[in-house]
Amino acid sequence: MNNSILFKARTVWQKFNAPIDRPLVFLTFALLAYASFVIASASPQRINAHLANLAVGLSCLFVAAHITPQRLRNITPSIYIAGVILLLAVALFGDISKGAQRWLNLGFTRIQPSEILKIAAPLMLAWFYFHRDEGLRHRDHLVAVCLLMLPVLLIAKQPDLGTGILVFLSGFFVLFLAGIPWKWISPLVIAIVGIIGVLLVSGDTLCQKDQVWPLLRDYQKHRVCTMLNPTSDPLGKGFHIIQAMIAIGSGGLWGKGWGMGSQTQLDFLPERHTDFIFAVLAEELGLVGALVLLVIYIALVLRGASIALHTKDRFGRYVAGSLTLSIFSYAFVNMGMVTGMLPVVGVPLPFMSYGGTAMVILCISLGILMSIAHSQTAARND
């Protein structure tokens, strides 16, 4: 009787544990533990809420890991449509906070639907390309671009240009992996390089108050101009970047010690528990602490890339590649923003910044990666 119970318990455990990718789980727990350590110093009053977010996120990770890629592919259109509908609901009924209409109040909680599109957009494009023949035509790529730009434009209109850019990148990675022609990509690359060049050469002139930038709001123009010269408005638009750079620079090699950062603990550093948490880490744990975080991120990206490269299923390969590159992009943009290399666009640091919706979406992304890895391993063993 006891042996039968033990056998059943072992079978249930093996079934539960089968999709769990040990390297990803180890790296995820390392990141989340590191995040909790830093947030406990940056914003101790939020640590309980942060731990609750972690519990929800990890639960979603394990659920997502048990959804097979085939099942995920079947429900992808529903996820995408639901995400777009929620974005439309935000435009019509969303809560306005800090001058932007990004949140949807469900009564018992508030959600930010744009976060959902970080997964829904690449999933939809991967689904679309999976159902196309090997010989892709220009109109196939055009339809894919339209599927991507619909949520991107809705998010940019909120306005939330930072999240819009990240959703665009997550979908662009699928377009790239699916083989979108270089002649479609080249104009975008040339335009970006040209804009950067013009800003570097004529930034002072373009940043004059009477200069109007097409397609951008005034606050977005100010963010770019502040990046070029933070000291132009040290107590206004440049305050965030200046304080972050002071915090990072003052940390030195080993940092000032946990809970001992002057910029952090004396409230000089704005948004220290969300967008600027990397500055908190660098001030209190120093260059060594920042490098530890970078090593974890690099290991996470390499593991995700390995899963994508060894996945034969096109849908799984596109999704794994896109989600992995997206996590890298989020980290790159946030660190570039905090160190003054990129404009402040309100992008959280993956797994480190405080926030429930973003944490859940990132954990679901890792769960999907685990599911894809397990599916490929099972296919090889059959």
Describe this structure in a few short sentences.
The chain is 71% helix and 3% strand. It has 14 helices and 3 strands. It has helices at 2-17, 22-42, 47-65, 69-93, 113-130, 138-156, 161-177, 182-206, 218-228, 239-251, 262-265, 277-309, 314-338, 356-381, and strands at 95-97, 100-105, 110-111.
Structure description:
By secondary structure, the protein is an all-alpha fold. The chain folds into two domains: 21-66 and 238-382, no CATH class; 68-191, no CATH class. It is built from 14 helices and three strands. The protein has helices spanning 2-17, 22-42, 47-65, 69-93, 113-130, 138-156, 161-177, 182-206, 218-228, 239-251, 262-265, 277-309, 314-338, 356-381, and strands at 95-97, 100-105, 110-111. Strands 1-2-3 form a three-stranded antiparallel β-sheet, covered by helices on one side. Helix 5 (113-130) packs antiparallel against helix 13, helix 10 crosses helix 12 and helix 12 runs antiparallel to helix 13 (314-338). The mean pLDDT is 85.
Radius of gyration: 22 Å
The number of helical elements comes to: 14
Largest sheet: 3 strands, antiparallel
Structural class: mainly alpha
The fraction of residues in strands falls at: under 5%
Q: Which residue ranges are poorly predicted, with pLDDT under 50 across at least 5 consecutive positions?
A: none
Would you tell me the overall average pLDDT? 85
DSSP helix fraction? over 70%
- Give the termini distance in whole angstroms: 32 Å
Beta strands, count:
3
Order of adjacent strands in the largest pleated sheet: 1-2-3
Number of domains: 2
SSE order, as H and E? Answer: HHHHEEEHHHHHHHHHH
The backbone outline, from C-alpha atoms, is globular
